[in-house]
Amino acid sequence: xxxxxxxxxxxxxxxxxxxxxxxxxxxxxxxxxxxxxxxxxxxxxxxxxxxxxxxxxxxxxxxxxxxxxxxxxxxxxxxxxxxxxxxxxxxxxxxxxxxxxxxxxxxxxxxxxxxxxxxxxxxxxxxxxxxxxxxxxxxxxxxxxxxxxxxxxxxxxxxxxxxxxxxxxxxxxxxxxxxxxxxxxxxxxxxxxxxxxxxxxxxxxxxxxxxxxxxxxxxxxxxxxxxxxxxxxxxxxxxxxxxxxxxxxxxxxxxxxxxxxxxxxxxxxxxxxxxxxxxxxxxxxxxxxxxxxxxxxxxxxxxxxxxxxxxxxxxxxxxxxxxxxxxxxxxxxxxxxxxxxxxxxxxxxxxxxxxxxxxxxxxxxxxxxxxxxxxxxxxxxxxxxxxxxxxxxxxxxxxxxxxxxxxxxxxxxxxxxxxxxxxxxxxxxxxxxxxxxxxxxxxxxxxxxxxxxxxxxxxxxxxxxxxxxxxxxxxxxxxxxxxxxxxxxxxxxxxxxxxxxxxxxxxxxxx
Length: 511
Ligand code: NAD
Fold this sequence. Notes:
One of its GO terms (biological process) is aldehyde metabolic process. This protein has helices at about 45-65, 70-85, 85-100, 100-125, 165-175, 190-200, 215-225, 235-245, 270-285, 300-315, 335-350, 380, 400-405, 420-425, 465-470, 495-510; strands at about 1-5, 10-15, 25-30, 40-45, 130, 140-150, 150-155, 180-185, 210, 230-235, 255, 260-265, 295-300, 350-355, 360, 365, 370, 390-395, 410, 415, 435, 455, 455-460, 470-480. It is α/β, with parallel strands linked by helices.
């Protein structure tokens, strides 16, 4: 059966060619949030199907590992070329399942491709065996460390960037030599299946990249399927459940959760650039970005001008279902009420809706909303809104802005606009990533680690840290010759230890 994803050109979504896992508890549809049309039908994989997927993935892992970094790079490079050649097809699918404008979907896949390139190109350098100094006590040893793959990595993903976000784990885990079982969001299973199918085209020998589809139960089953690591991206509440399930088997976890990122505007900032960035950060992808700008702290002396610049731009933006809309719909229907309540509560508590208001919520769309002077304890300031809204609050100094930014429970990304103090302010932000005088730039730099602190989770995807996340460091010593003084033998004499103590006094007992 072939279905056509809505939103323009023919997109082949062959839903029968799903992973080789047998579905056992029925199927579900993924829908286009703009129209409610069915994009694809997918199996609900239950516990036994998930275990089978892990078994299949594991059956090819050793082969994948033994290809070595160079062999895997060749395959991952080939996958990258397939993704580039089919970029429009993938973008149609991303757009159909999330509702995001087609160019935003294309941009997402451009980032996927660049990260895949980086992971494949750098895995050997970052993870391959390297010698380390063996030190004075073990001078006879050749010491080295290498990152060996865990085995099978379970990847659980969200829907807001259904290709880019999970590929931050999938590409890096594969480059490190792991097999992968991916559980995409129930809202975007087709994108997950598309990734699996394109990979299988360049690695037909073994089913080492599996996809399991379904709801939370399928994800929970993956946590309990004896995978060797779980990389989760999604909400903080689900992240806690994932950790709890993984704790039963001491399965290590990487947890990438929500955020409430702040943007600081200092008195010397380029206000036009800051307004442009604030709006893109807050409203692009209809605000459904974990590292989106949700609140702004602007220094009093420039606040009126800044608010005006943001408002002028926000008023011109319109959501819609057409591929060229400025922003698409709210992908997850249940979030609409959260967005409406955050706006209503902010206004009830004395905040001002400078652009839009509760009337801006027209499901499935929400027009951009700009709120000012919202009390700091309002959900619009403390909780993830995940809609095209922005709160702009005034502060006396940029330092006060940093203090307020750091007061929240999340710590994912952040932004600073300042000519003189950019890096200084950035370093004081309690977050995993900061962009100075631009917004979200760090996510598009493959060499930079991505992840947060606090309720935003822990562990890193992307960059060298992201590669190391998917390998276990293995330390090896190799004896090159016998030491004249060997303290680790029952044959040692008392003189041996005395000499070692004297040596340590000499070398380490002084300044
Ligand atoms: P979610 O937590 O509802 O779901 C995420 C995934 O977890 C889905 O695949 C879901 O089926 C699965 N799941 C649900 N219950 C589960 C359970 N008990 N055990 C295992 N898996 C389970 O999140 P969402 O609504 O899909 O995504 C939006 C959230 O993701 C936002 O909070 C956003 O900030 C966050 N996010 C974070 C990042 C990041 O890198 N930090 C990136 C993108 C999105």
